[in-house]
Specification:
single chain; alpha/beta; Rossmann fold; 7 helices; 9 strands; globular
Amino acid sequence: MVTKLDIAKNWLPRYTGTEIDEFGDYILLTNFDYYLKKFAEQFKCDIKGIGRPMQTATCSKGVTIVNFGMGSANAATIMDLLVARNPRGVLFLGKCGGLKRSTEIGHFILPIAAIRGEGTSNDYLPSEVPALPSFKLHKFVSEKLVARGLDYRTGVIYTTNRRVWEWDEDFKQYLRKLSAIGIDMETATIFIVGHVNRISRGALLLVSDLPLIPEGIKTEEMDRIVNQRFVDLHLQIGIEAMTEIGSKGEPIKHFDY
């Protein structure tokens, strides 16, 4: 194994328990077992990779969902390993904390860019390079949201490696200065590593908490309510977008900066 492609071809099945030719042309990424199970139930397909670092399910419509875990290191790993499959598009269905008054729990965000606060992406490109999604993929997801009559937000996401920061007033003040609309742990990494690997990528984020105010910090109860009220819709929009973009969307092409 002397090239990145050689390694990815060996490691993608090892990490996921899924052979390369079993992956679909379009990929949904998630951090949550619930999304994976709901997808498998809807399409009556098997979950593969149980006991492995990552699990997958693939439907007959050519879409695979991957639960890659949490954090930027795992996000970079799956975006590197997917070069073995060379998918036509990848959409991250993630949750984020809302940082603006205009964002409420249950809102959807299509980020126009992400701030690279996680550090992982610096191993791929200099910090000056912006973390951007593929416009045509986001345009198609936007059309799906509008067709459902759903209001959504756009803006910049701040991606961090810190998981427990809600107590830190200095960090919260820093976030306010950045004018970011939301905060998560994966989006910037997915955008940058996707760009490096010439993979078309996007993110549809669900606002799951409001961490700048004490009563908005995520709790187990809050997370349960969010899952009950919004997660099925989040997943369904992702499924509709990725099962139809090949036949109804504009051709997605990768361009270097």
